[in-house]
Amino acid sequence: MMDDLQLNVSLLRRRVPNLTAAARAVGLRPATVSNLCTGKTPIGNAEVKTLVTLASLAGCSVDELLIRGGGMAMIETGIKVIDLLAPLVRGGTIGLAGRRGSGQLVMMAELCRRMKRRGYETVFWKPEGEVSGIGNVEKSADAVFAGPDEVAEHIVSIRSDRDVFLFADRTVVLSGELFALRQRLEDAAGRPVTTALVDILFEAVDEEVPYGPLDTSLRFDVDLSSRALFPAVDPVFSISTMLEGALLEATHLTLQQRARKLLRRYRELRAVVGAKGFEVLTEPDAAAYKRGERLEAYFSQPFYATEVFTNKPGEWVALQDTLDDVRRILDGASDHMEVRRLYFSGRLALEDAQGEQ
Prior knowledge:
Blueprint: E1 5-7, H1 9-15, H2 19-25, H3 30-38, H4 48-58, H5 62-65, E2 66-68, E3 74-75, H6 80-85, E4 88-89, E5 93-97, H7 104-117, E6 121-125, H8 135-140, E7 143-145, H9 148-158, E8 164-169, H10 171-174, H11 177-186, E9 193-198, E10 216-219, H12 222-226, E11 239-240, H13 250-276, H14 283-298, H15 307-310, H16 319-331, H17 350-354
Helix pairs in contact: 9-11, 13-14, 13-16
């Protein structure tokens, strides 16, 4: 079926390093290539001449360019800060790192629930021994196993039908078991396996490369968690390989850059305000501070995994809605809003969206 086909984006990136420029040089629109790479435009809707041109650029056949049930693409999670600034890569590896109490394990449980909603099989590779704090992850996953053989057998048994999202502790990286599992899975055809790694013992927070190569790095910020701004994903230092090349739309990339620049400046200004007061800021800096404060608040979001504790229903915010809301905040269309109205919300309220008219 055509709707199960995707571009072999890893092949394209490897053989055509500057894909956007190369596509433009042969008459293809960068947006067209971007939409095919991210999966926004289904292969079935692509023109044959576009696929033939891309195959020619990569020096391969059209059959090699197309793969069934695979290919690099963004996994939309409905979590605003992740989808905008550090998108998850289908078939890639995600690493979570932070200090105790910053919300890593809650994020693991939340991703379990959200991936199940997307139709993924969620598997938790449970670490050996008694480990506190993982009960919610176990309850949220479709399957829980302690040994690599059980994990491998289960993934092989269901991988022909749907994608797998594997959750595991850092110990399987250090022991070499994850590498062995991946080698074993290479011999079995099937849909992609996306892996999320967490440092359950919080031993690697200060390591620059705690998990080896990653496609998405989610850094958790103790300052955000101390101010009860959850998810406490650091919006400045969390990053994804989806930022590279033509893997995201130009609008998305532009908003990423603008949002990260604003939040970096906002952090600098927070230190000034904390030491000398808001009054010392220039008018442009005061505007940047207030917009950064609103954007930071907007990224806080109710989770399904914490509903029983917060009494707030979880919120799923579609990527396009996130992009629209972030643009409004960056452009000043929400300058009239009180910051408190943005805490732990989903989309900008309808009346606030209308306020920009």
